[in-house]
Write a structure and sequence with these properties.
homodimer, 143 residues, 68% helix, DNA-binding
Amino acid sequence: MPNHLDNQLCFLLYATSKEIIRRYTMLLKPYDLTYTGYIAILALEDDEQITVKELGQRLFLDSGTLTPVLKKLEVKGYVRRERSKEDERQMQIYLTKSGIEVRQKLPEVSRQVIKQSNITEQQYMQLRNVLQDILQKDCPIKD
Amino acid sequence: MPNHLDNQLCFLLYATSKEIIRRYTMLLKPYDLTYTGYIAILALEDDEQITVKELGQRLFLDSGTLTPVLKKLEVKGYVRRERSKEDERQMQIYLTKSGIEVRQKLPEVSRQVIKQSNITEQQYMQLRNVLQDILQKDCPIKD
DNA sequence: ACCAATTAGATTGTGTGCAATTTAATTTTG
DNA sequence: CAAAATTAAATTGCACACAATCTAATTGGT
C-alpha cells in the first residue's frame, strides 16, 4: 500500500461524503427533511414497526443521534413513536400515511444526486463493492 | 444507472466515511487531536504561512468550521494565528515547532487505519480514482 | 421471590459542518 | 476621493455524531 497516499484516500472519502450529503440536503428541503431524517424514513418499511435500536443498527446510528431526529420526524407527521406494551423500555417507530407518501417521492431525489455526480455504471459498481468490503471487514473488529 | 441502488451507494459512502473517521479519532487521542485538527495540521506545510481561506479551500471547510478548530490547535500549541500586516482581514496560520513534530508522527496513524480496513491495492486505487472523479465533477457545479 | 446484571432509550457534553449574518478592512467606481 | 461593493474572519443558529452517563424496565441467577 503506497504510504504517501493513505491520507488522500480517507480524506477523499470524507470530502466526497460531505459533498454528496450537501446535495441531498438541498434537494430534500422541499420535503422539510434533513439527510438524517431522509435515511431514517427510507430505512422504515411501509407496514413495519421497529425499535430505535433496530433502526439504529440499520443506519449505524445510536439513540443519542436518533432520538432527536425521530422526535422531529414525529412533529412533522412522518413517523409515530409508541412505547411497546410488551417491553416498556422499547419505543416502537413506524411511518404514518404522510410518511409513506413522502417516502415514495424520495427515490427521485436520490436519482438526481447520482445523476449530478456523473459517474459511469462501472464506477458505480466498483465504488459500491469496495465500500461494502470496507464496511463489512470493519464489522467484526467493532464487536 | 440502477435506480434501486442509488440510495445504497450514497449511504455506503456516508457510513464508511463515518467509520473511518471514528477509527482515526481513536488513534489520534494520544496526540490530543480530533480528525478535523488532524487534517488541518496535515494540510499545512512545515514552513508555510497560509490564510484561513486558503486552508479552507484545501480542506473543503469554511471559517465557521475552521476558526474554532484553529483556536483549539493554537491552545494546544500546534499552530499559531497572526493577523496579516498587509491585509488586516486575513489571519495567517502556521505550524509551531511542536506542530511540525506531531505532524511527522501522523502518517503512522493513517497507515494503521488503512491496514485495519484490509483492502487490496487494486481496490485502493479504484476507490481513489472514483472518488476523485466524483469530487472533481462536482466542483464546476458548485461555482 | 430477590437482587445483581443487563438492556433500551433518553440525556448531556463536546466537536464538527454549514448557511446566514456581522464586522472590519480593502478595493472598486462614479 | 468618498461612497458602494467586495472580501476575510468571526459569530450565530441549527442539525447532526458519538461517547458517557442516567433512568427505568427486564432478565438471570440463586
